[in-house]
Amino acid sequence: MDLLDIERVEVLRGPQGTLYGKNTIGGAYSIITRRPGQDPHGLFQVTVGDYGQLESRIAASGPITDNFAIGGAIFGASRDGYVTNPVTGDEYNDRNAWGGRFQAAWDVTPSFSLDFAADYAAEDNALTMGQAVSTLVSFAGATPIGIVPTPAPEYNFTAQATPGLPNSSTMDHSGASLRASWDAGNNWTIKSTTAFRALNYDDYVDIDATRFEFGDVFVGVRQDQTSQEFQAIYEGPRLTLVSGVFYLRENIDSHQEAYGDDLVLGYFGQSSFLRTVDDSLETTSTAVYANASYAVTDRFNVGVGVRYTEEEKHYIRSTSTFWTSPGFNSTVAMNRTDSWDDFSPMISLDYQLTDNVLLYGRVASGFKSGGFNGRANNPGEDAPYDPETVTSYELGLKSDWLNGDLVANVAIFYNDYQDFQARVSGTTADVPPVLSLTVLNAGQLEISGAELELVYRPTEALRLDAQIGYLDASYGEFKDVRFTNFGGSRAFQDPAFSPEWTARFGAAYEWDLANMGSLTLAG
Question: What does the DSSP assignment read for 51-119?
Fold first, then answer.
């Protein structure tokens, strides 16, 4: 997603269902675009890089009347492919994209406003190329007839696609939203947000990155979603309340093809292989929520929130496998419907120890709905899985010193995931063996750690910042019957994507160019 003319980005840790809704079990990024207003605004941005990268963004907004303003932004991005076919010269994994957004802000009356936004983006790229990790010259002792083995690439950025595989990957997505806000008086505001989004893509992928037809696939997806949210907001001297109802309807249809003629050539007398997958997922999600904050004193606040969610999914899938011999052909079909509900509470405390030091604590629960295994190719793999839940604990300190020139924030946290959803793969004892891909509620996952954020301005022009994080992630329980030597458990493994230490250090220096604006150098 290309971000255009952004006013600010908010990062929220921990479950955020009581305010930000569906699928915020680990946190939320809130991206706020700039609202057109009475002050004219313009932005021009250019990015250049290697592999011929060139990106540009233009945005402008301003008033049409004293209560109506519009704004728009467009972007274009291109980059050469970083994988090249050494025989044909074709490039893969490139990028050619463009898009834009239009916004309108109308303050109809002093107490009623309307905001409209629409966006569109499209990409037309070469196919997605994997990396060759094997010469792939035989399968089960059978060498493809008439194919001369190709040596492995000398380095990572050359690959040969299967002849005849289209060098194409296209995508477009669009959306529109309308928000109405009414100041109803007596500290109450009523809001309505109606939104629609659609996504379409046709993607060819050569997974094995060789000219053999081993791992070549096509994926075509059509997705759309409609949502409606109503909010009632109260802002009093001590009490702030955000409450609402939410509805979402999403439809996803996809068609997939996997080609593997060279995989079976000469094996069991087969010379061709094609697997097709057609599936459709319909999701309906409804929720009610409330989040309140009460100022017990001028320095001490208590927050409570709750969200109740009901979600239903209807999934239809058909997997067909076609071999040279008709007797080998097979079809596995599934048609499943299931529903889940969840009650997620939250409580928080914050205390202003001094004018520049804030202490806080928060306990929240999160929910990610269950579903069905979208990779089921064999009978029995299509079993549904249950929701995943988490209870999150966080304590922290936010402070500023030296008249605001030094900012220091510290947070420690502990997250307890139950019934976490794990995708596992394996092979059956059949001859030939069958690859099995399933999703399990495998057990418990514990994640704890601490984070330090520092910002220091030694002068008005110079800004130094640092973020350091420590993470301890482990499986309390991970059931997997294949690990017989470990009692059917793989809890001894380290969770993926959980580095023990992360760090970032940055600096920025800004020169005032008088009437011409400013120049910033950052690293």
Answer: TTEEEEEEEEEEEEETTEEEEEEEEEEEE--SEE-TTT--EES-EEEEEEEEEEEEEEETTEEEEEEEE
